[in-house]
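User: Could you go from structure to sequence for me? I need the amino acid at each position, not a summary. Structure tokens:
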């Protein structure tokens, strides 16, 4: 039951680190029978926007749809409803914001992903609504509408994704992934990483969750050019979040 696997932690106060994100977090549990997964997370698609690359986006959706153990999370700025103060001009959009949801749903590759339940969830970004202030409810309306139309879970600001996979000896192992769109004001990658980590940790602590359970935090927003590849080894944890002694798992990350 999808509802049973979602937990929303609401906190009334705001973050303190140059944040535009309220400190709330949603936990979603995804259980799979696959011991290995391709997580092809898509940030900053800007569907229909001035710089949107339709052919590339469709290629990635097609890969997710046709690869048995591939899934995606839409990581914010799915759409492109910028205002005139933003870096993109909405009057130059390839698809006007009013029709962007319909356009996304019309793509055969996206429809196949929806049919095969390959889109785990969506996170809101700063271009996904009618204002340029992410703390206003109106700014989440486009993604919220798209997710409700397609019965998809969504996280307004921060997502704790728990991937539960079969492990050695018949024991399930859990990978804990923090996801947020990002709202850092810096273009320096190191500073942005520290800023987003601090905000996500604050959101977890406010919800009485232990940040040390996280294996990785993912965010977008910066539009970094080029490709960054790396691999990290993280502890293997049981269903209660306890590390299993002398066991690690590898997360291979390709960012482009």
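Assistant: Here is the amino acid at each position, in order:
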């Amino acid at each position: 039951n999808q509802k049973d696997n979602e937990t929303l932690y609401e906190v009334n106060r705001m973050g303190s680190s140059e944040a535009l994100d309220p400190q709330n977090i949603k936990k979603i549990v995804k259980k799979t029978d696959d011991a290995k997964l391709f997580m092809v997370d898509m940030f900053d698609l800007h569907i229909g926007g001035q710089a949107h690359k339709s052919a590339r986006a469709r290629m990635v959706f097609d890969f997710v749809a046709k690869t048995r153990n591939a899934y995606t999370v839409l990581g914010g700025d799915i759409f492109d409803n910028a205002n005139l103060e933003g870096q993109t001009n909405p009057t130059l959009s390839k698809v006007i914001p009013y029709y962007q949801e319909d356009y996304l749903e019309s793509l055969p590759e996206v429809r196949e992903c929806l049919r095969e339940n390959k889109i785990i969830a969506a996170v809101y970004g700063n271009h996904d609504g009618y204002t340029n202030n992410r703390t206003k409810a109106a700014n989440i309306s486009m993604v919220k509408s798209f997710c409700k139309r397609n019965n998809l879970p969504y996280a307004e600001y921060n997502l704790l994704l728990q991937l539960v996979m079969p492990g050695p000896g018949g024991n399930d192992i859990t990978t804990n992934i923090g996801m947020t769109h990002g709202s850092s004001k810096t273009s320096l990658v190191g500073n942005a990483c520290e800023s987003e980590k601090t905000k996500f940790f604050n959101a977890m602590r406010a919800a009485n969750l232990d940040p040390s359970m996280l294996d990785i935090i993912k965010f977008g927003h910066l539009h970094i050019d080029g490709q960054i590849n790396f691999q990290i080894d993280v502890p293997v944890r049981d269903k209660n979040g306890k590390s299993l002694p002398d066991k690690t798992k590898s997360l291979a990350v390709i960012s482009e």
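One structural detail worth keeping in mind: Confidence is low (pLDDT under 50) at residues 8-20.
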